[in-house]
Design brief:
With 364 residues, the protein is an alpha+beta fold. The protein contains 17 helices and ten strands. The protein has a single domain, classed as Cytochrome P450 (Cytochrome p450, Orthogonal Bundle), CATH 1.10.630.10. Strand 4 and strand 5 form a beta hairpin. The longest helix has 18 residues, at 161-178. The protein starts with a helix and ends in a 9-residue tail after the last helix.
């Protein structure tokens, strides 16, 4: 990722990277990305052929070409991921968040509930393991450097310890002042600007797909004297865009307050449709800040350090597994969490009826 930033600095906002016989044109500035992928979007709406497409029998929407099948998938997905639709799903997210033990379990159970009408209460069910294995193979198949034709892929710590401690205390103070001794809900979000800033900064600082998703030119195109041949893979290099020093000061630092100091300037750099459901998933992570004191893990009295650049490689990037300490912030919060889970509606049929995804029980 850092290497592509260096290349853009050396060669400009448009660079061509060759992997065997496959060429990828990477876009490293907001201006060029906007000009090509938005203003000329009709010519770059297709996807190059990927092995991952074959793995899914041509049904993985991310890699479908811009034809009728893609349009059908797109209509379905956009109807499910609008702001209005995602607000309906909050009843499911609220239930899953009350079982506040595993972040991975929360996400998988929420998606299974909405997509298949079945909760995953433990997170290690056969369906979850099978799906994770399929996704692992797909992500491995599109990793950078994978020599499979025609395939190509794509500071955990906030400065010093003292800065991180001050930030943690400040966030907790915000939560306690607004929320108090109850579990946070989605209605608290407007009153927690710093938490919203943290969510935005997480997306910028460690974009889940820093290499971007690949587009393909439907026809030959010429831009600023560059020929982009038909079928060539074109990708917005999010890592370069998100570390653009003309927009983000100290871009490699985790600084949520940049979104409060200059929100218009930062938000102007956001590209494309923001998937509201994904942001809501991260928002539920505020429950962890409310419920736990989170810190380093220790082993035999020695603090276990975390390398902020120790990341998995592929189209989806995440930190490699690391250990951390989660301690419930007092017995009162423990009782509130336990009681909330005890009283939560866990019947998926009832939840989906509330969402509007299923007809009321007893109706044909």
């Amino acid at each position: 990722m850092v290497l592509t930033v260096k290349w853009h600095g050396q060669y400009g906002p448009i660079i061509c990277i060759r992997f065997g016989s496959l060429k990828i044109i990477a876009l490293g500035s907001h201006k060029v990305t906007h000009e090509l992928l938005e203003k000329r979007g009709s010519n770059y709406s297709s996807r190059p052929k990927f092995l991952a497409d074959r793995v899914s029998n041509g049904l993985l929407p991310t890699f479908l070409p811009f034809r009728e099948k893609w349009k059908s998938h797109h209509r379905l997905h956009t109807s499910l991921l609008t702001l209005q639709a995602s607000q309906k799903y909050q009843v499911v997210q609220d239930v899953e968040s009350k079982q506040i033990d595993l972040r991975a379990r929360y996400a998988s159970s929420q998606i299974f509930s909405l997509a298949y009408g079945k909760r995953m209460p433990h997170g290690d069910e056969p369906e979850v393991r099978e799906l994770e294995e399929v996704m692992r193979r797909i992500l491995e198949s599109i990793s950078l450097g994978e020599e499979v034709f025609p395939n190509v892929g794509a500071l955990y710590e906030a400065g010093t310890d003292s800065t991180a401690i001050v930030l943690d205390v400040f966030v907790m103070a915000c939560l306690d002042a607004v929320v108090g001794m109850r579990m946070p809900t989605f209605t608290d979000l407007p009153m927690l600007p710093y938490v919203r800033a943290i969510v935005s900064e997480v997306f910028r600082w460690r974009h889940p797909s820093p290499g971007g998703l690949h587009h393909a030119a439907d026809e030959d195109d010429i831009y600023q004297g560059f020929l982009i041949p038909k079928g060539t893979a074109v990708v917005a290099n999010h890592f370069s865009l998100d570390t653009d020093e003309s927009i983000f000061d100290h871009p490699f630092d985790f600084e949520p307050d940049r979104w409060i100091r200059n929100p218009a300037r930062c938000r102007s750099a956001l590209l494309g449709l923001v998937v509201v459901l994904a942001r809501d998933c991260i928002w539920v992570g505020t429950l962890f800040l409310w419920a736990y004191d989170i810190g380093y893990a220790y082993e035999k009295g020695r603090r276990l350090e975390v390398d902020p650049w120790d990341l998995t490689q592929g189209i989806g990037v995440r930190p490699t597994p690391f250990r951390a300490s989660f301690c419930v912030r007092g017995e009162k919060r423990h009782q509130i969490i336990s009681q909330a889970w005890k009283e939560a509606e866990k019947d998926v049929d009832v939840l989906l009826e509330q969402v509007g995804c299923r007809a009321p029980m007893g109706e044909a």
